[in-house]
Amino acid sequence: MKTNHRLRPVRVAGFTLVVMALLLIPARSHMAQTTEPQNLTPGEVQQLKQRLLQLEQTVEELKAQITSKDDSQKKLDVATGEKVGAPATIAATPTDAPAKPQDDEKKGESTFEVYGFAMLDAGYQFKQNDPDWFDVIRPTKLPSFPNEFAPNGNTYFGVRQSRLGVRSSTPTKYGELKTQFEFELFGTGADAGQTTFRLRHAWGELGQFGAGQQNSTFMDGDVFPNTIEYWGPPGMVLYRNVQFRWMPLKGRNAVSIALERPGASADQGRFADRIELQGVRGHFNLPDLTANVRFTRDWGHFQAAGLLRRIAWIDTNDDAFDLGGSAVGAGVNLTSALKFGENTTGKFAFVFGQGIQNYMNDADVDVGIEGNLAAGNPRRPIVGKALPMFSFITYLDHNWNKRWSSSIGYSMMDVDNSDGQAPDGYRRGHYASGNLLFYPVDNAMIGGEFIWGRRENFLDGFHSDDFRIQVSFKYNFSKKFTF
Looking at the domain assignment, is residue 194 inside a domain? Predict the structure, then answer.
C-alpha cells in the first residue's frame, strides 16, 4: 500500500531531529564527564559547560518546532477528512476513484456580445444606374436601353452599410446554445434606396440544430472578397434565408442540411401585357432543400453545396387557357478559399444550375416564358421554363503588412434566356474591382476602391457600363460580457 506522501515528510523530519538531539546530549555529557577529571583549567571547564547549555537550548527549540508541525498536520488531517492520529491511508488514484455522475446542467461560461460598425461610403459614379441603387453596382440595375437613368455622373454619400448586432453563447447539456440578432441600414425591396433598418440575422442554434434567418446553407460567405462596395460580385451565391438546419457533423469536416423558405420570380417577357397572365400566381407548397459538405485544412477550405426546389404557378383565371405549371430548380455551388502563403488568399466560386437565380448575389429572374405552339395544345400556348445559368468569381485578398491590404478580382454571371423573354432582357453581367485599404489603428479602416460593372442584353445587342471610385471610412466596435 502507498504511503500518504503528504504526511510522511513532516513526521520523518521530526523523528530525525529528536534522535539527533538525544544522541548529542549524552555525547556532550560524556565528554564533560570524561574530560573534567583530566588536568583542565577552570576556564576550559567553564567553556564546556557553556557549550552544553547551548546544545540543550537548541534541543528545546527543535522540540517546539516539532510540536508546531504536528499541530499543523492535525488541522490538515481534519480539513481533508483524515482521522486525527490515524495511520496514513492510500491516496485514491484517478482509476481507483468512483466515477462522478455527469453534470446535467450547463458547464463553462456564458457570453453576450454587442458588435457592429459605423461606415461612410462616398464616391463618384461616371455613368448611370437605377437611382434606387445609387451606392452600389449591380449589373441587373444598369440601363437596359440608352440613357434609361440619365444623366451620367453622380456624387453619392451614404451610411447604409452600418451594422448593429448582438450574439450570445451558453453551454448546456445538449450542446452550445447560440443566438444572433443583427440589423443593417441598407434598404431593399419596398425600401430600396432608403437608409432604414433591415434584418440580416435572427438565428438560434442548439447543438446540431439551428432555426431562423441565416446565410443559406447553399451559400459560402467566406468567399466574399475584402471589398468595400456593398453589393459585391454578382457571380456568387449570397442569400440570407429563413430555414431549419441540421448540422450532424461539425469541425474540420462539416455537413449541413436545411429546409429553406421557397420563393422565385418570373419574367413575362413579350407577353407581359396579356391579360391572360394577370391571374397567374406563384405557388410554393414545398420548402427548398439545401445541403453542403465542407473540408477545412491548413491550406484553406473547400465546400460543395447543392440546391433542389420546386417552382409552381397556378392560373386563377376562368377562361379558355390553362397557363399553370411547374419547374424543377436545381444547382451546385463549388467554393474555396486557398492560402497562397501567409499574406495572400484566393477566393473562388463556380455555380451552375437552373431556376436558382434568387439565391445569387445579383440575378434577374428564375423562370422565363417559352413558346409552346409546337406542342399542338391550344389551351397552353406558352409555358414557364426554369432558366439555366452559370457564374463564377475569382479574387485575391492580400495583406501588404499590418496596416495595408488590397483585394482585386473579377466575376461574371451568364443566363440562358428563354425565347419568350424580351430582347432587352438581362443576359450577362460582369463585375471587377480593386482597392487599397489602410488600417491606422485597430478597428478603424479608410480605403479607396475602383469598381466596374457591365450589363449585356438578351437579343438587341445593347450593353451598358458603369465606372465608379469609392472611398469608405469604417469604425468597428464590440464588447463581450462573460458570466
Answer: no
